[in-house]
Write the structure tokens for this entry.
Amino acid sequence: MVQQSILETIVQQIHYHQSRWSFRIQKKLPFNVFDRPSRICNEIPLPKQSKIDSHLLNALYDEIHITEGVKDVSERLCLIAAGLLDRPIFRPFSSRDTHVMHQIKQSSICSVTSAPKAVHVDENTAANDSTKYCKILFDAALQSGKGARSFKVVPILHELRDASHGANGPPDLSARAADSAIHLAVRPAVDVCVSKFKAFQATQSIVGFRQVVESFVQNITGGKIHLENRSCANIRRLLHSATMELREGNHVDIDAFLEEVASELSMLSVSENDEQKQI
């Protein structure tokens, strides 16, 4: 379904630009004027009863790859940025191969500036989350691309540059440089990306968890007790332990935790009644 939607969007963009005069001018130019975010049309004026070009759709079908999972998506983007995905030879000094960095940077900017405005609070939260996810992925890709071409990060590039004639170097040395770039630049960038995703997701879980507990305490006590009260020290200790579990990515049984909180609150109520009787 995702693949089909992406394909149809690409085909619509292609047909839209092919119908414009600027496309005919582009074919006569030695450079590409369409490789800019501003060229993407968000609202394509499609004619009535328009049909998607099935031939173009089928031709593009095998070119669209769907990758799932933070690690796999990040690794693919980082390899693309480094010029190491499905490439016959590693060419870190090629200006043509480096152009992909510009495309990724533009994609990163678009993911932030072109984020849809939500009507409802839940939609706005989801939109913000999606923007942050994209930003983390593209930042990791840029880090990987820069690192793979850095002499400081990948020292073997000094040797490759001295032995290269133009953008291409000796195949054996290029292969060793590619392995070194993957080990020293790509994998660290992927690890950082995965860690950031886990931290971001953990933060969301912790915030939501604390809100549920706070609301539960308010409902049970009729708004008379807050977690910040001195009498809630034991509940805060329980909450801290649960928070640390969530931060480590572990599961916390919210129902069992709320039962513990209810037990602590009942003990507080008994203690308060005893104090009132003594008075």
Observations:
- DSSP finds ten helices and no strands in the chain.
